[in-house]
Amino acid sequence: MKNILVLGASGSLAKVVITVLLDNPEIKLTLFSRHITELIPLTHERVSVVKGDVMDLAQLEQAMQGQDIVYANLAGELELMAKNVVQAMAKQNIKRLIWISSMGIYDETETDHGSILDPYRLSAKVIEESKLDYTLIRPAWFTNGIEVDYKLTRKGEAFQGDQVSRRSIAALIDKLIQKPDCAIGESLGIAKV
Ligand SMILES: NC(=O)c1ccc[n+]([C@@H]2O[C@H](COP(=O)([O-])OP(=O)(O)OC[C@H]3O[C@@H](n4cnc5c(N)ncnc54)[C@H](OP(=O)(O)O)[C@@H]3O)[C@@H](O)[C@H]2O)c1
Fold this sequence. Notes:
There is one protein chain. The protein is α/β, with parallel strands linked by helices. The protein has one domain (2-191): 3-Layer(aba) Sandwich (Rossmann fold), CATH 3.40.50.720. 29% of the residues lie in helices and 25% in strands. The chain has helices at 12-21, 57-64, 78-91, 118-128, 166-178, and strands spanning 2-7, 27-33, 47-51, 69-72, 96-100, 133-139, 141-143, 151-153, 163-165, 186-191. The protein has an eight-stranded mixed sheet with strand order 3-2-1-4-5-6-10-8, sandwiched between helices. The chain has a two-stranded parallel ribbon with strand order 7-9. Strand 4, helix 3 and strand 5 form a beta-alpha-beta unit. Helix 1 (12-21) packs across helix 5 (166-178) and helix 3 packs parallel to helix 4 (118-128). It is globular. The termini are far apart. The model has no long low-confidence stretch (mean pLDDT 97). Bound molecules: NADP nicotinamide-adenine-dinucleotide phosphate (NAP). The site of NADP nicotinamide-adenine-dinucleotide phosphate has 22 residues, from helix 1 and strand 7. Residues 8, 10-14, 33-35, 38, 53-55, 73-76, 100, 102, 139, 141-142 line the site of NADP nicotinamide-adenine-dinucleotide phosphate. It comes from Entomomonas moraniae.
């Protein structure tokens, strides 16, 4: 069994990812969120739910106990959240982190997204400077399409595309969880081209 902690489990992307991950009988999920009623539809024998706030380091450390991989699907004060996640993972001796960021944080897109992406830039820097085995994912605009159709771009490459289905991002995360040695220390842009 592989234990995965999902931070921001009530998020629009996380809900799709969770459904995909549960197809693998070798996976157990701990869903962490401030609003756990949102998680009732995700009830499953391999799912446990923790009500908590990422800003509360003690709650975060508690939720990290016994986890193998952390998948962070957060929005808000991302720089502080990233610092707490890095600190809590170090304390619990967990190495593998999958962190959802955004396209545009390295000015790698044709559009200038401006300061709205600052929390994404600052949190990415925290993760990249950590000693964790991280993968940053930089998605294009999410769609509800059911297709799995995506192209990855690496840090330093121009971003391609401007949309991607949540289902495609879920497929990538599923792959990374099945092969956790893949894409360590990478920052992957994902879009349908
Ligand atoms: N929409 C797009 O097209 C797009 C494109 C690229 C990147 N992104 C980014 O990708 C990320 C994931 O997207 P999404 O649509 O899944 O986001 P979302 O629906 O806004 O979900 C964000 C999650 O963060 C959780 N959260 C916020 N503050 C928290 C805290 N203090 N403690 C614990 N949990 C907290 C929220 O849960 P609770 O409130 O229940 O705690 C929520 O589940 C976001 O950062 C988003 O901006 C989005």
